[in-house]
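Subject: sequence -> structure tokens, single chain

Hey, anyone have a minute? Need the predicted structure for the following. Not urgent.
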Amino acid sequence: MDSIAILGGGSWGTALALLLARQNPDRRVSLWVHDPSLARAIAEHRENAVYLPGFRLPDSIHVTGDLPAAVAGSALVLGVVPSAHAREVYTAAFAALDAPPIFVSATKGLETGTLLRMTEVIEQVAAERDAGPVRVGALSGPSFALEVARGDPVAVVAAARDRGLAHRIQQAVAGPTFRAYSSEDVIGVEMGGAVKNIIAIAAGICLGLGLGHSTIAALVTRGVAEMTRLACAQGAQPRTITGLSGVGDLILTATGPLSRNRSVGIELGRGRALTEILDSMRMVAEGVGTTAAAMELARRSGVEMPITEQMYGVLYQGLGPRDAIRELMQRRLKEE
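Reply:
Had a minute. Here:
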């Protein structure tokens, strides 16, 4: 894996570029940035001052706004684009490739409308372009971009249905400060990474309302139950949800001050309108779109997700945060 392309120049994509370049100075790392002016600024100043200020990018990182140039000759393409734009970006990437490399998604969300996970989007795009068998994996786990860029010890999961491919991805991304575990449960890894964002918004709402740790603990615990039910209905293994890409990432996103989804929830709890909150953000809070997708997926799967249902009401139907909590607390009593 001496040539890696990263699609997405936000904070997470930039942090991964830094990580991979530091691990091996001889490795060719290309960072594709959607905004050409931002790409030029990063390339000139060797810093992503918009999304990850304060970190110098090594000269070995090639920053470009040219997608075909970024993916050309790459052994691994790491997708870090928002789920809403993933299909468009992967379609352009496949159009620029002669022989598809290994594709790894590091996006934590579901595609609105199709309800597909990101690896499924990649596979569908490959089939539409008649690209033949494509090697696809996922990378997820509790990892804030700032902390990865800073060199804090972090542990994640590299997943692929083929064990050998999972090991190759694991070895490609692992380093002294970035421990990667392998998994064959792509469904569980992706579903955990997506659904935990919904619970993180709910946790933020509780904080915005001034509620205490007991409330958050109950919410997170019952959130794990929802994540497990939905993921397992899609074919995931329960133990995956109790691991890094499920419970681990949920703990981080629901409690960490760097969490965008938690921040959205805090502002909702304080009474701000969702449109106003989102308009003020530079980066995407995947949990907003994922809430609608997860609700539909739960309906089709016959899975009960009361927290997600109330979050859908708050985000899309004008339900007040306190009313949502009241609905949850007054549900019919049952066994745990």
